[in-house]
Amino acid sequence: MPDRPMIQIAGVSKAYGSFKALDDATLTIREGEFFSLLGPSGCGKTTLLRMIAGFDTPTEGTIAIDGQPMDGIPANRRPTNMVFQSYAIFPHLNVDQNVAYGLKRLKLGAAEERRRVDEALAQVSLSGLGKRGATELSGGQRQRVALARALVMRPKVLLLDEPLSALDKKLREQMQVELRRLQQAVGITFVLVTHDQYEALGMSDRIAVMFGGRIAQVAAPSQIYQRPVNRQVADFLGGMNFIRANVVETNGTAITVETAGFGRVKTEKPSGFNDETRETTLGIRPERLRVLWDDAKAKHEIAGTIVDRHYFGEITHFIVDVPGFEKTLSVSESNNFGADDLPVGAPVRLGYDPDALVALAD
Q1: Domain boundaries, the chain
Q2: CATH class of domain segment(s) 5-231
Q3: Which class is domain 239-360?
Q4: What is the pLDDT of residues 275-323, one digit of tens each?
Q5: Distance CA 5, CA 16 (A)
Q6: How does pLDDT run across 236-268, given as a tens digit for each residue?
Q7: pTM
Q8: Which residue in 75, 79, 328, 357 has its CB near the most CB atoms, within 10 A?
């Protein structure tokens, strides 16, 4: 992927009276990147998206798109287009008319307009449905029409404001795959706003995780999931076990800690770590703890008792009480190995890799 910046956000804040919806956001989004703004409701992600689009104006800071400052440039003059959560397609127009709506002001001529509409409909797998009324479409088809209407204008950046949230689970997962395929095919920058961690992890080249109007971490999905910058990010993305640990040694970028259950562990310093700190938090994902069956051995293992279990089809999620831990551990195990047969009250041995234990800033 090229490193050429497409969107540059520098020190952007947005205040409504004394309330700061966005606080000093600085971010570069690359050309041809599928980028997600991820966070809980009210974290500022939609506010930032609307400022990129030109619907809202920053209180402080600057936004540039493709090297051009956007100060004073209205939404309809920016090289962006937006797909809204509600789709916002016109119910009194058919598919062709909805897609062609924005082209009318370009005065392309009938033949070129027809060619552009057909191309956009083919991109979203709606060829042949141009004459269908908007009210005759399924939810997934309406979403595709909204995408085609945005893409037909050939923007440099496509902005997506939770476009899949109204779809049922199966269709939403299907559309996630199609959106990613579409982005790779057209090659333009996509910026997605979502509160769904799995949606962001599955579709994005990089993710910005946001809380309380601030950007907490920007990284590739695997980095954010496996190496979250702090406890808040770790807790928001998937399940995480948190274990208090005593710092026994600090050496450059590494620290050695002692825990009541995992013993002595060496790991990277968490973000903002103070060398005088004597206590920190370790995190380990439930799937990084594996059940040791029968006589199987692991270099590193702990033992406990299953106190609760939840069956989810492909996996069983166990709650395990381990002596020495203040809290129980969550463990996810594939049912291919018979995890669904382990009852509450059964003793269990868990193997782990010390590299899976990550020190987290509080």
Answers
A1: 5-231, 239-360
A2: alpha beta
A3: mainly beta
A4: 777 888 999 999 999 999 888 888 999 999 999 999 998 889 999 999 8
A5: 29
A6: 998 999 999 999 998 888 999 998 888 899 998
A7: 0.90
A8: 357
